[in-house]
Amino acid sequence: LQGQAPEAQRRREGDTLYIQCPYTGQTEHQNIKYWCLLRNRRCQELVYTYYYETTKQSKDGRIKINDDTTTKTVSVTMTDLKAEDSDTYFCAFYKHTYVPLRTISLNVFKGDTHPGVLQGPSSTQLRSQATSLCSGNTFLILSVVLLILLLLALLTSIALGVRYYQLLLRTGNREAEDTSDRAEGTAQPGSTGRRESSQDDSKGPAYINLDVQSPSSPEDPVYCNVEPSQAPRNPQHVEYAVIAFSQSPRTSRE
Description:
This protein is an alpha+beta fold. The strands form three sheets. The protein has a five-stranded mixed sheet, with no helix packed on it. Strands 2-7-6-5 form a four-stranded antiparallel sheet, with no helix packed on it. It has a two-stranded antiparallel sheet with strand order 10-11. It has one helix and eleven strands. It has a domain at 7-109: Immunoglobulins (Immunoglobulin-like), CATH 2.60.40.10. The chain starts with 6 loop residues before the first strand and ends in a 42-residue tail after the last strand. A hairpin with a 2-residue loop joins strand 3 (33-39) and strand 4. This is CLM3 protein.
């Protein structure tokens, strides 16, 4: 079998080989076209086509041949290549003998790179890297959002605590003022009282003088009315009053 020198073709396992074999000026369309495996310089027929059946495929469906009589070109497609497919192939037509149109030397290798050739990452590796990157970005975004929510919750708790503490202080001050007003707001009917104090209640004690208009028994209670303007400004200071009566001599009738 005489023909051209084989053309080197390299493919990875799982790839597809597509070969075109023009036959312009060499044969007529009625001649049978073959895709052969070279064995002992002879054609081991893999798939072929007639002029009235221009497209055929192998039994396993991996090899397909098509004869385009318009462009006078035979096309061969081999899919799902395997390492054991590595061999020498050729297109041919039969005219008393096999006449080769194009001869190739196919090398199907395993792995992700050609022997001795450095290539970039595969699509699977790129997808894996993209997935990892997206997962990392998502985790970072979620962490930032959770941190912001925790800070907002902490600030809200502090603000509520300060407001509650201020409310307690105001409530305690009002209760102390009410207690002071009740302690100083009574006097005996029929008596008058006058409160004397220094310019600043916080600097010293205050005094109230009572003028009793009618004689009373020492056992009777004595009350004193104090005007609101005379009340001490600072309810935290406690004021005391000491009232003394001089006992009048008893009459003969008593």
